[in-house]
Amino acid sequence: MNQSGNSRGDHHLRSFIDKSNVDSLGPCGLCRHGAPAPSPRLSSWRQHMVKRSRTLVVTLLAAALAATGCSGSDDKSGDPTGKETDRVAYITAFGAVGRDAFAWVAKEKGYFAEAGIEVDIKEGAGNQQNLTALKSGQVQFGALDFTGAVIQAGKGEFTDWRAIAAVHQQTLISVMTTADTNITTPKDLQGKTMATGAGSVTELLFPAYARLAGFDPKTVKIEGVQATALNGLMASRKVDALGTFLLSRNALQAASKKEVVVLPYSDYLRDLFGNAIITTPALIEKDPDLVQRFTDAVLKGLQYSIEHPDEAAAILNKVKPTYAVAAGKGEIDAMSPHVRPASGAPIGFMDEKQVAQTITVLQGADLIPPGLTPEKVVDLRFVKKS
To answer: How far apart (Å, rounded) are the C-alpha atoms in residues 251 and 257?
Structure first.
């Protein structure tokens, strides 16, 4: 083809593109390409050139659509990988207090978002409510007292759960009193009244604790009350001691304005875990990747909390303004020594031998019948030793 022929072809190509006006555009401003049909007076050669031009324009526009995202595909919540965000609910061990701040820290610092998870954090109220919420599908993950949950599983009350990570490497339940009661050793509890959360693990384990400490548990009057009432009862000296969490020491001291004496259960019951993160066997089987991502993110929040207690307490205070930053920091500081495994394993690690020993201790205390095994209460694949 000669030079003049090329010029004429270029002219027709430019003419075609010029005639593709705004009315021919689709909803994206780019997608339709219904330009006017070529004039019937055009030669076959010219018609051929127009068709080729159309093909070229469509190709270029398609490339533009890919670059601008005008493809009509579903929104993936801004995730550059194109994966949809998983939405789950999580329930704290008990309310919104320092020991549970790490979940809000994981959310505030973006650890859940980085894992592709949106988490609705609910305030728990102890093992019974939390296991009920998990069983009914109201939540997919939760925190609770592991030893208490093992007792419930051993009795056949709640079995459809598995611990996937430890929050505390040893139990933090304790006897707590004020110095003016003159109770300084476990044996001093004989003939006294102790209040505990009704049906709490503190109450359930007290007989085993008493026997190991060398006195008859029947010599102590136990009053089961609402856990939120404990500090008030002790401050007003309506009871002689409390069965409560070690982490509540600062709160009791503030309420009573007296020196507080703590007698940890772990002095005699050494192989028991404290709080743990749980989920259901069904979710583990259906979506182990989600369980792994959640575990990694929440433990990242736990580690950040014990390394930055002031910031963690401030984050919690934003969620629960009535809970003072100082109280939150006090609980986080108190629990920090109990979070890291003594073996040097990662935070959250649960040693199978310790789980087995927990079961043995509970069976020996006649709290559960024989037959419970570690695999019925833990799934160890999500936090490996190294």
So the answer is: 10
